[in-house]
Amino acid sequence: MKTRNAWNSVLLLTTLIFAQAATAVTPAEEAEKKCIKPKFRDFTPAHNSEVAPESTISFHINRNVDPLHVSASARKIPMAVEVVDKKTFYYVSAKLPKELTEGFARIHIEAKAAEGNCIGQDGWLIILKDGASADKTETAE
Asked: What's the confidence (pLDDT) of residue 29?
């Protein structure tokens, strides 16, 4: 009876050792999980366009993004973004901060990839034109 218990113990230990080796992740398998950076497109308003403060901006992101980790800022002022799932891409919109005054502002956008640990970044430049000063020039003419 003792030899049978000894063989059962040896069999159990052998099974446990090989089970760990069979389920282990090899370095080759880890390398296969490449991060695909998010791609941005269709920026509205277009690059170097004149816009009024508190205007709405929008852009599209491909499906390789985590929709909960999308951010946008203008002159380092964060904007609240709204992400809408359009089945083949994400439509993102935000409102420019009211703190922005006349001049230039870079819209900086950032999104985390859905798989992997990489972050995609992009942006574009807009020209801010105050609505009150635009009305004054029209009435002066």
From this structure: 61
